[in-house]
Design goal:
Helices cover about 55% and strands about 5% of the residues. It has helices at about 40-45, 45-55, 60-75, 80-90, 95-110, 120-145, 155-165, 170-180, 190-200, 205-215, 225-230, 240-250, 265-280, 285-305, 320-325, 330-350, and strands at about 20-25, 30-35, 35. It has a 3-stranded antiparallel β-sheet. It binds s-citryldethia Coenzyme A (SDX).
Protein backbone atom coordinates (compact mmCIF):
# COMPACT_ATOMS: atom_id res chain seq x y z
CA UNK A 1 0.00 0.00 0.00
CA UNK A 2 1.56 3.31 -0.95
CA UNK A 3 1.02 5.84 1.88
CA UNK A 4 -1.86 6.33 4.25
CA UNK A 5 -5.35 6.09 2.70
CA UNK A 6 -8.01 8.76 3.39
CA UNK A 7 -9.67 7.91 6.72
CA UNK A 8 -13.36 8.96 6.86
CA UNK A 9 -14.01 9.09 10.63
CA UNK A 10 -17.59 8.08 11.40
CA UNK A 11 -17.81 6.97 7.74
CA UNK A 12 -18.70 10.62 7.04
CA UNK A 13 -19.58 11.12 3.36
CA UNK A 14 -19.19 7.41 2.49
CA UNK A 15 -21.84 5.94 0.13
CA UNK A 16 -22.34 2.22 0.90
CA UNK A 17 -25.50 1.44 -1.12
CA UNK A 18 -28.25 2.87 -3.32
CA UNK A 19 -31.70 3.39 -1.79
CA UNK A 20 -35.10 4.68 -2.87
CA UNK A 21 -36.58 5.03 0.62
CA UNK A 22 -35.55 8.45 1.87
CA UNK A 23 -33.82 11.60 0.66
CA UNK A 24 -32.28 13.90 3.27
CA UNK A 25 -31.29 17.18 1.58
CA UNK A 26 -28.94 18.70 4.19
CA UNK A 27 -28.29 21.91 2.26
CA UNK A 28 -31.90 22.77 1.39
CA UNK A 29 -33.31 21.34 4.63
CA UNK A 30 -35.73 19.02 2.82
CA UNK A 31 -36.80 15.45 3.65
CA UNK A 32 -38.65 12.97 1.40
CA UNK A 33 -40.05 9.49 2.18
CA UNK A 34 -40.21 7.62 -1.17
CA UNK A 35 -40.40 11.00 -2.92
CA UNK A 36 -43.15 12.51 -0.76
CA UNK A 37 -42.15 15.76 0.96
CA UNK A 38 -42.30 15.42 4.77
CA UNK A 39 -44.32 18.67 4.92
CA UNK A 40 -47.09 17.11 2.80
CA UNK A 41 -47.03 13.86 4.79
CA UNK A 42 -47.11 15.70 8.15
CA UNK A 43 -50.01 17.86 7.00
CA UNK A 44 -52.09 15.23 5.21
CA UNK A 45 -51.01 11.70 6.14
CA UNK A 46 -50.78 9.75 9.40
CA UNK A 47 -48.41 7.26 11.02
CA UNK A 48 -50.21 4.12 9.78
CA UNK A 49 -50.43 5.31 6.17
CA UNK A 50 -46.80 6.50 6.25
CA UNK A 51 -45.70 3.17 7.74
CA UNK A 52 -47.42 1.43 4.80
CA UNK A 53 -45.61 3.79 2.40
CA UNK A 54 -42.25 2.99 4.00
CA UNK A 55 -42.83 -0.78 3.82
CA UNK A 56 -44.24 -0.82 0.26
CA UNK A 57 -42.91 2.30 -1.51
CA UNK A 58 -46.45 3.40 -2.43
CA UNK A 59 -49.26 5.13 -0.54
CA UNK A 60 -52.08 2.62 0.17
CA UNK A 61 -55.57 2.76 -1.34
CA UNK A 62 -58.61 2.50 0.96
CA UNK A 63 -58.63 -1.32 1.09
CA UNK A 64 -54.86 -1.63 1.48
CA UNK A 65 -54.87 0.83 4.39
CA UNK A 66 -57.84 -0.91 6.05
CA UNK A 67 -56.09 -4.30 5.76
CA UNK A 68 -52.81 -2.82 7.06
CA UNK A 69 -54.50 -1.13 10.03
CA UNK A 70 -56.29 -4.38 10.88
CA UNK A 71 -53.02 -6.32 10.70
CA UNK A 72 -51.37 -3.81 13.05
CA UNK A 73 -54.32 -4.02 15.44
CA UNK A 74 -54.26 -7.83 15.50
CA UNK A 75 -50.59 -7.83 16.57
CA UNK A 76 -50.93 -5.49 19.57
CA UNK A 77 -51.28 -8.08 22.30
CA UNK A 78 -48.25 -8.92 24.41
CA UNK A 79 -47.66 -12.43 25.69
CA UNK A 80 -47.82 -12.76 29.51
CA UNK A 81 -44.14 -13.81 29.46
CA UNK A 82 -43.22 -10.40 27.97
CA UNK A 83 -45.38 -8.50 30.46
CA UNK A 84 -43.86 -10.48 33.35
CA UNK A 85 -40.35 -9.69 32.05
CA UNK A 86 -41.17 -5.97 31.93
CA UNK A 87 -42.58 -6.17 35.45
CA UNK A 88 -39.49 -8.02 36.66
CA UNK A 89 -36.85 -5.39 35.78
CA UNK A 90 -35.83 -2.96 38.56
CA UNK A 91 -37.63 0.44 38.40
CA UNK A 92 -34.37 2.30 37.78
CA UNK A 93 -33.58 0.26 34.64
CA UNK A 94 -33.12 2.45 31.55
CA UNK A 95 -36.31 1.78 29.52
CA UNK A 96 -34.22 1.37 26.34
CA UNK A 97 -32.63 -1.73 27.90
CA UNK A 98 -36.07 -3.09 28.77
CA UNK A 99 -37.33 -2.33 25.26
CA UNK A 100 -34.33 -4.04 23.67
CA UNK A 101 -34.74 -7.12 25.90
CA UNK A 102 -38.49 -7.32 25.29
CA UNK A 103 -38.17 -7.08 21.49
CA UNK A 104 -35.40 -9.69 21.52
CA UNK A 105 -37.62 -12.01 23.58
CA UNK A 106 -40.59 -11.45 21.24
CA UNK A 107 -38.30 -12.45 18.39
CA UNK A 108 -37.11 -15.49 20.32
CA UNK A 109 -40.71 -16.68 20.67
CA UNK A 110 -41.63 -15.87 17.03
CA UNK A 111 -41.36 -19.11 15.03
CA UNK A 112 -41.21 -17.05 11.80
CA UNK A 113 -38.37 -14.81 12.98
CA UNK A 114 -35.72 -16.48 10.79
CA UNK A 115 -37.97 -16.72 7.69
CA UNK A 116 -36.82 -13.88 5.41
CA UNK A 117 -39.81 -14.53 3.14
CA UNK A 118 -42.08 -13.51 6.06
CA UNK A 119 -40.21 -10.25 6.76
CA UNK A 120 -43.09 -8.09 5.51
CA UNK A 121 -45.62 -9.59 7.94
CA UNK A 122 -42.94 -9.75 10.65
CA UNK A 123 -42.33 -6.01 10.10
CA UNK A 124 -46.01 -5.33 10.81
CA UNK A 125 -45.72 -7.45 13.97
CA UNK A 126 -42.61 -5.51 15.05
CA UNK A 127 -44.17 -2.07 14.34
CA UNK A 128 -47.25 -3.04 16.34
CA UNK A 129 -45.57 -4.81 19.24
CA UNK A 130 -42.82 -2.24 19.82
CA UNK A 131 -45.55 0.35 20.51
CA UNK A 132 -47.31 -2.02 22.93
CA UNK A 133 -44.00 -2.74 24.67
CA UNK A 134 -43.16 0.98 25.09
CA UNK A 135 -46.66 1.65 26.44
CA UNK A 136 -46.37 -1.33 28.81
CA UNK A 137 -42.97 -0.12 30.06
CA UNK A 138 -44.37 3.37 30.74
CA UNK A 139 -47.55 2.12 32.38
CA UNK A 140 -45.80 -0.50 34.55
CA UNK A 141 -43.12 2.03 35.65
CA UNK A 142 -45.84 4.52 36.62
CA UNK A 143 -48.55 2.27 38.07
CA UNK A 144 -47.22 -1.34 38.04
CA UNK A 145 -50.28 -2.03 35.89
CA UNK A 146 -50.50 -3.31 32.29
CA UNK A 147 -53.43 -2.08 30.18
CA UNK A 148 -54.54 -4.51 27.47
CA UNK A 149 -54.77 -3.00 23.96
CA UNK A 150 -58.04 -1.77 22.47
CA UNK A 151 -58.39 -3.28 18.95
CA UNK A 152 -60.84 -0.57 17.91
CA UNK A 153 -58.39 2.32 18.36
CA UNK A 154 -55.82 3.55 15.81
CA UNK A 155 -52.16 2.61 16.35
CA UNK A 156 -51.31 5.92 18.05
CA UNK A 157 -54.56 6.21 20.00
CA UNK A 158 -54.05 2.67 21.29
CA UNK A 159 -50.45 3.46 22.31
CA UNK A 160 -51.64 6.44 24.37
CA UNK A 161 -54.52 4.35 25.80
CA UNK A 162 -52.17 1.52 26.86
CA UNK A 163 -49.71 4.06 28.29
CA UNK A 164 -52.24 6.05 30.31
CA UNK A 165 -54.94 3.47 31.04
CA UNK A 166 -57.51 5.80 29.46
CA UNK A 167 -58.15 7.27 26.02
CA UNK A 168 -56.58 10.67 25.14
CA UNK A 169 -58.47 13.51 23.36
CA UNK A 170 -58.30 13.29 19.55
CA UNK A 171 -56.20 16.47 19.18
CA UNK A 172 -53.57 15.00 21.51
CA UNK A 173 -53.63 11.72 19.51
CA UNK A 174 -53.22 13.69 16.26
CA UNK A 175 -50.21 15.62 17.66
CA UNK A 176 -48.53 12.42 18.87
CA UNK A 177 -49.29 10.72 15.53
CA UNK A 178 -47.64 13.56 13.61
CA UNK A 179 -44.58 13.28 15.87
CA UNK A 180 -44.35 9.53 15.18
CA UNK A 181 -44.63 10.17 11.43
CA UNK A 182 -41.87 12.81 11.57
CA UNK A 183 -39.56 10.35 13.37
CA UNK A 184 -40.45 7.36 11.17
CA UNK A 185 -37.50 7.38 8.77
CA UNK A 186 -34.22 9.20 8.12
CA UNK A 187 -32.05 7.27 5.64
CA UNK A 188 -28.74 5.86 6.91
CA UNK A 189 -28.72 7.31 10.43
CA UNK A 190 -26.65 5.41 13.00
CA UNK A 191 -29.44 3.13 14.26
CA UNK A 192 -30.65 2.23 10.77
CA UNK A 193 -27.07 1.58 9.66
CA UNK A 194 -26.61 -0.64 12.70
CA UNK A 195 -29.67 -2.66 11.72
CA UNK A 196 -28.38 -2.95 8.15
CA UNK A 197 -24.96 -4.18 9.36
CA UNK A 198 -26.73 -6.85 11.40
CA UNK A 199 -28.97 -8.06 8.56
CA UNK A 200 -26.00 -8.06 6.16
CA UNK A 201 -24.71 -11.14 8.03
CA UNK A 202 -28.09 -12.80 7.22
CA UNK A 203 -29.11 -12.60 10.85
CA UNK A 204 -32.87 -12.12 11.39
CA UNK A 205 -35.03 -8.99 11.29
CA UNK A 206 -35.68 -8.96 15.08
CA UNK A 207 -31.92 -9.07 15.77
CA UNK A 208 -31.42 -6.23 13.30
CA UNK A 209 -34.14 -4.14 14.99
CA UNK A 210 -32.67 -4.88 18.42
CA UNK A 211 -29.27 -3.67 17.15
CA UNK A 212 -30.99 -0.49 15.96
CA UNK A 213 -32.75 0.02 19.32
CA UNK A 214 -29.46 -0.31 21.18
CA UNK A 215 -27.79 2.16 18.82
CA UNK A 216 -30.59 4.73 19.05
CA UNK A 217 -30.10 4.92 22.85
CA UNK A 218 -27.01 7.17 22.73
CA UNK A 219 -27.32 10.95 23.42
CA UNK A 220 -25.63 11.77 20.10
CA UNK A 221 -28.57 10.08 18.39
CA UNK A 222 -32.00 9.21 19.77
CA UNK A 223 -31.10 10.00 23.36
CA UNK A 224 -30.81 13.72 22.56
CA UNK A 225 -34.52 14.43 23.00
CA UNK A 226 -34.45 13.58 26.73
CA UNK A 227 -31.10 15.38 27.14
CA UNK A 228 -32.46 18.48 25.38
CA UNK A 229 -35.49 18.66 27.69
CA UNK A 230 -33.20 18.30 30.72
CA UNK A 231 -31.25 21.30 29.37
CA UNK A 232 -34.45 23.30 28.72
CA UNK A 233 -35.93 22.61 32.17
CA UNK A 234 -32.58 22.90 33.97
CA UNK A 235 -33.20 26.51 35.03
CA UNK A 236 -31.32 28.23 32.18
CA UNK A 237 -34.39 30.09 30.98
CA UNK A 238 -33.37 33.19 32.88
CA UNK A 239 -30.13 33.67 30.94
CA UNK A 240 -29.90 31.35 27.89
CA UNK A 241 -27.15 33.50 26.31
CA UNK A 242 -24.83 32.90 29.28
CA UNK A 243 -25.69 29.18 29.40
CA UNK A 244 -25.11 28.62 25.67
CA UNK A 245 -21.82 30.57 25.78
CA UNK A 246 -20.77 28.25 28.64
CA UNK A 247 -21.50 25.06 26.66
CA UNK A 248 -19.74 26.34 23.56
CA UNK A 249 -16.64 27.54 25.45
CA UNK A 250 -16.42 24.17 27.26
CA UNK A 251 -16.45 22.40 23.87
CA UNK A 252 -19.58 20.43 24.82
CA UNK A 253 -22.58 19.84 22.59
CA UNK A 254 -25.89 21.70 22.81
CA UNK A 255 -28.42 18.86 22.87
CA UNK A 256 -31.02 18.99 20.10
CA UNK A 257 -28.77 21.06 17.85
CA UNK A 258 -26.48 20.18 14.96
CA UNK A 259 -26.66 17.31 12.52
CA UNK A 260 -24.30 15.23 10.42
CA UNK A 261 -26.35 16.01 7.29
CA UNK A 262 -28.53 19.07 7.93
CA UNK A 263 -26.44 22.25 7.89
CA UNK A 264 -29.63 24.30 8.10
CA UNK A 265 -32.87 24.02 10.07
CA UNK A 266 -33.98 20.33 10.25
CA UNK A 267 -37.33 20.37 8.36
CA UNK A 268 -38.83 18.13 11.03
CA UNK A 269 -37.88 20.64 13.74
CA UNK A 270 -39.61 23.39 11.73
CA UNK A 271 -42.85 21.37 11.75
CA UNK A 272 -42.52 20.27 15.39
CA UNK A 273 -41.93 23.87 16.51
CA UNK A 274 -45.13 24.98 14.71
CA UNK A 275 -47.05 22.06 16.29
CA UNK A 276 -45.73 23.13 19.71
CA UNK A 277 -46.75 26.76 19.20
CA UNK A 278 -50.25 25.66 18.17
CA UNK A 279 -50.52 23.27 21.13
CA UNK A 280 -49.40 25.60 23.89
CA UNK A 281 -52.28 27.95 23.13
CA UNK A 282 -54.48 25.93 25.45
CA UNK A 283 -51.90 24.04 27.48
CA UNK A 284 -51.17 24.37 31.17
CA UNK A 285 -48.62 26.95 32.34
CA UNK A 286 -45.89 24.28 32.88
CA UNK A 287 -45.78 23.29 29.20
CA UNK A 288 -46.12 26.92 28.12
CA UNK A 289 -43.12 27.85 30.29
CA UNK A 290 -41.05 24.93 28.90
CA UNK A 291 -41.94 25.96 25.33
CA UNK A 292 -41.08 29.60 25.87
CA UNK A 293 -37.75 28.67 27.46
CA UNK A 294 -37.07 26.45 24.43
CA UNK A 295 -37.77 29.35 22.05
CA UNK A 296 -35.34 31.51 24.07
CA UNK A 297 -32.59 28.87 23.91
CA UNK A 298 -33.20 28.42 20.18
CA UNK A 299 -32.74 32.15 19.58
CA UNK A 300 -29.63 32.36 21.77
CA UNK A 301 -28.06 29.32 20.06
CA UNK A 302 -28.80 30.18 16.44
CA UNK A 303 -27.24 33.64 16.97
CA UNK A 304 -24.00 31.87 17.90
CA UNK A 305 -24.00 28.69 15.80
CA UNK A 306 -26.24 29.31 12.78
CA UNK A 307 -23.39 30.53 10.60
CA UNK A 308 -21.49 27.31 11.49
CA UNK A 309 -24.40 25.26 10.17
CA UNK A 310 -25.58 24.21 13.62
CA UNK A 311 -29.37 24.51 13.86
CA UNK A 312 -32.16 22.79 15.82
CA UNK A 313 -32.64 19.14 14.86
CA UNK A 314 -35.63 16.82 15.29
CA UNK A 315 -34.83 16.29 18.97
CA UNK A 316 -34.88 19.86 20.26
CA UNK A 317 -38.61 20.58 20.34
CA UNK A 318 -39.72 16.95 20.65
CA UNK A 319 -39.38 16.96 24.45
CA UNK A 320 -41.73 19.92 25.04
CA UNK A 321 -44.28 18.36 22.66
CA UNK A 322 -44.09 14.95 24.32
CA UNK A 323 -44.48 16.69 27.72
CA UNK A 324 -47.67 18.30 26.39
CA UNK A 325 -48.89 14.87 25.17
CA UNK A 326 -48.20 13.47 28.65
CA UNK A 327 -45.17 11.27 27.87
CA UNK A 328 -42.50 11.17 30.60
CA UNK A 329 -38.90 12.13 29.62
CA UNK A 330 -37.51 8.63 30.25
CA UNK A 331 -39.89 7.36 27.56
CA UNK A 332 -38.85 9.89 24.87
CA UNK A 333 -36.18 7.67 23.30
CA UNK A 334 -38.35 4.51 23.46
CA UNK A 335 -41.04 6.58 21.70
CA UNK A 336 -38.43 7.56 19.09
CA UNK A 337 -37.78 3.81 18.66
CA UNK A 338 -41.43 2.89 18.13
CA UNK A 339 -41.69 5.73 15.62
CA UNK A 340 -38.56 4.61 13.73
CA UNK A 341 -39.57 0.93 13.53
CA UNK A 342 -41.12 1.29 10.03
CA UNK A 343 -37.96 2.99 8.73
CA UNK A 344 -35.72 0.32 10.24
CA UNK A 345 -37.83 -2.53 8.80
CA UNK A 346 -38.00 -0.85 5.38
CA UNK A 347 -34.21 -0.51 5.13
CA UNK A 348 -33.64 -4.05 6.42
CA UNK A 349 -35.89 -5.48 3.70
CA UNK A 350 -34.42 -3.20 1.01
CA UNK A 351 -30.84 -4.18 1.89
CA UNK A 352 -31.67 -7.90 1.72
CA UNK A 353 -32.74 -7.47 -1.91
CA UNK A 354 -29.05 -7.04 -2.85
CA UNK A 355 -27.29 -8.21 0.28
CA UNK A 356 -23.55 -7.90 0.75
CA UNK A 357 -21.80 -8.50 4.07
CA UNK A 358 -20.76 -5.13 5.51
CA UNK A 359 -17.12 -5.33 6.51
CA UNK A 360 -15.13 -2.03 6.18
CA UNK A 361 -11.33 -1.82 6.53
CA UNK A 362 -9.23 -0.11 9.19
CA UNK A 363 -5.80 1.40 8.49
CA UNK A 364 -3.47 -0.61 10.76
CA UNK A 365 -0.89 1.57 12.52
CA UNK A 366 0.39 -1.06 14.96
CA UNK A 367 3.54 -3.27 14.79
CA UNK A 368 3.96 -6.75 13.25
CA UNK A 369 6.21 -9.72 14.17
CA UNK A 370 6.61 -8.92 17.87
CA UNK A 371 8.46 -11.85 19.59
CA UNK A 372 6.24 -13.79 22.08
CA UNK A 373 7.83 -13.90 25.60
CA UNK A 374 6.83 -16.42 28.26
CA UNK A 375 5.01 -14.81 31.18
CA UNK A 376 7.89 -15.19 33.68
CA UNK A 377 10.24 -13.31 31.38
CA UNK A 378 7.96 -10.24 30.83
C1 LIG B 1 -30.55 12.46 15.50
O1 LIG B 1 -28.24 10.93 11.45
C2 LIG B 1 -29.53 11.15 11.59
O2 LIG B 1 -30.28 11.26 10.65
C3 LIG B 1 -29.96 11.23 13.04
C4 LIG B 1 -31.41 11.70 13.26
C5 LIG B 1 -32.44 10.68 12.77
O3 LIG B 1 -33.59 11.09 12.49
O4 LIG B 1 -32.09 9.45 12.79
O5 LIG B 1 -31.61 12.95 12.60
C6 LIG B 1 -31.70 11.87 14.76
O6 LIG B 1 -29.73 11.74 15.98
C7 LIG B 1 -30.40 13.96 15.53
C8 LIG B 1 -29.13 14.41 16.31
C9 LIG B 1 -29.42 14.31 17.83
N1 LIG B 1 -28.16 14.58 18.56
C10 LIG B 1 -27.97 15.75 19.24
O7 LIG B 1 -28.76 16.71 19.21
C11 LIG B 1 -26.68 15.80 20.04
C12 LIG B 1 -25.99 17.14 19.84
N2 LIG B 1 -25.51 17.19 18.41
C13 LIG B 1 -24.12 16.92 18.19
O8 LIG B 1 -23.54 15.95 19.05
C14 LIG B 1 -23.78 16.78 16.72
O9 LIG B 1 -24.36 17.84 16.07
C15 LIG B 1 -24.11 15.48 15.98
C16 LIG B 1 -23.52 14.31 16.64
C17 LIG B 1 -25.58 15.32 15.83
C18 LIG B 1 -23.50 15.59 14.58
O10 LIG B 1 -22.21 15.88 14.77
P1 LIG B 1 -21.05 15.65 13.68
O11 LIG B 1 -21.57 15.66 12.31
O12 LIG B 1 -20.24 14.46 14.09
O13 LIG B 1 -20.25 16.97 13.87
P2 LIG B 1 -19.10 17.18 14.94
O14 LIG B 1 -19.48 16.62 16.28
O15 LIG B 1 -17.83 16.71 14.33
O16 LIG B 1 -19.08 18.78 15.08
C19 LIG B 1 -18.59 19.59 14.01
C20 LIG B 1 -18.39 20.95 14.61
C21 LIG B 1 -17.58 20.92 15.90
O17 LIG B 1 -16.92 22.16 16.02
P3 LIG B 1 -15.30 22.19 15.79
O18 LIG B 1 -14.73 21.26 16.88
O19 LIG B 1 -15.07 21.65 14.38
O20 LIG B 1 -14.96 23.63 16.00
O21 LIG B 1 -19.66 21.52 14.99
C22 LIG B 1 -19.72 21.66 16.40
C23 LIG B 1 -18.59 20.83 16.99
O22 LIG B 1 -18.16 21.43 18.19
N3 LIG B 1 -21.02 21.13 16.84
C24 LIG B 1 -21.65 21.55 17.93
C25 LIG B 1 -22.84 20.81 17.97
N4 LIG B 1 -22.89 19.97 16.93
C26 LIG B 1 -21.75 20.17 16.23
N5 LIG B 1 -21.31 22.47 18.87
C27 LIG B 1 -22.20 22.65 19.89
N6 LIG B 1 -23.39 21.99 19.99
C28 LIG B 1 -23.73 21.06 19.05
N7 LIG B 1 -24.88 20.43 19.16
Amino acid sequence: MDGKPTINLGLEGIYFMESKICKVDGKAGKLYYYGYDIEALAARSNFEETSYLLLHGELPNVKQLADFSRALSEERNLDDKIIDMIKSVPKETNPMHTLSAAMDLIGAYDKNAEKTADNESTSIRIISKIASVVAAIGSIRATSQYTHPDPKLSHTANFLYMLNGEPKPKEVVKLADTMFLLHAEHSSNASTFSGIVTISTLSDIYSAVVSAINTLKGPLHGGADEAALKMITGGIGKDPDKYIDGIISSGNRIMGFGHRVYKTYDPRAVIIKEQLKAAIGDSDSRVKEIAETAFGIEEATIKRTGQKGIWPNVDFFSGPVYSYVGIEPELFTPVFALSRAPGWCSHIMEYLKDNRLIRPTVYYTGETGRPYKEINSR
